[in-house]
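I am writing to request your help with a piece of structural work I have in hand. Thank you for your consideration; the sequence and its C-alpha cells are set out here:
=====
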Amino acid sequence: MKVKITAVAKQLPKYYRETKDIIPFVQLWMQDQDTRFQRKVTKLFEGAGVDRRYSIMDPEEVFTATSFEDKNNIYAREVVQLAEQSLKKSLEKANLKATDLDYIITVSCTGIMIPSMDAYLINSLGMKKDIVRLPVTEMGCAAGVSGIIYAKNFLKSNPNKRAAVVAVEAPTATFQLEDYSMANIVSAAIFGDGASAVILSSCEEDKGPEIIDEAMYHFYDATHMMGFNLVNSGLQMILDKEVPQKISDHFPAIVHPFLERNNLTIEDVNHLIFHPGGKKIVQTVEALFGVLGKNIDDTKEVLRLYGNMSSATVLYVLERFMDRNPAKGERGLMLSFGPGFSAQRILLEW
C-alpha cells in the first residue's frame, strides 16, 4: 500500500517584524539588567540567523505583562484561524474538499486547548462526522514529522483514504517577561509563529512523493534537554546548551542505519529536508552533512525568513521541495528533533 504526500501549504500570522525592529523592544525589556549582559543579548538576537519573525500578537503585546490566561486565550483564538487557513490552502493544492478527509492530526505544543483545534476545524470546514481525530500536543519540534508518521501508519492500513496533518505553533505566547535566563532569551531570538498543513493519501490516483520508510530514535537520559516547565506565568522554555553536541554525537546512528535498512547511503539522497532548530543546531548538522557532500540551504533559508516555528518549521522546508516538483526517482530525507530527546526520520521518493 503506497502512501503519498500530495500537498503542503503554510499560513503565517498577521504580525511580523524584522529582527532589527525587535531589538529596541528587547533593549527596553532589558533596561534594568547589567550593561554587559544587555550587549550580549543584543548580539545574540543580531546573530541568530533569523531576519524576520511572524507572531500571533503585536510585539507590544509580547513585551507586556499579560497573564498566562491572556496569552493562552490569544493562542486559542489565533491558532484555530491559522489552522483553518493552512488546511484550506493545502486542500486547494490537492484539488480536494474537506469532506474528502478521513483522518485529521493536529499538532501544537505552545498553548493549551480542550477541545483541541481539530474539533473546531471539523465544525468550521464541515468535515465528515466519522472523521478520525488525533491531537498531538507534547512532542515539540519533532511533531511535524511525528504527525506524518502517524498519518502514514493509518493510511497504510486503510486503502483509498486521505489524511491531513495540521501543525500550528505560537512560541511567542510562551515568552516569559520576568525570566532573564538564556533559555528564555535564546528561544525569543530564534522562535517565530506559523502554521502548515500536509495532505497524505493512500488513493492510487493521487500523486506525490511516496513515504518509503519512517522511524523514531530516542536518546536515553535526555528528558531534561528540551521542553517546557508549566509555571504560574505560562510555559517556560527548557533548552539545554548541549543539544547541538548531543545531535552531533548521535548523528551517525540516526542517519546511516536508517538508510542502510533501505539499501541506501547518504549519496543516494537528493534532498535534505531538515528542521531548522536554531543557528547552532543548523551549523552542527550542516557540518555533518557537508562532509558527506550535501547541503541544507533550504533549512537555513526557512530559519532566516521565519525563525523556528517548532513543529511546523520542517513542513515549510518540505513545501519548498514539493513546489519545485523534483524529478521522478529522486529521494528526500526528512529529519527533526524534539523533547524526549528524540529524532524523527522519514524517507521520501518522488
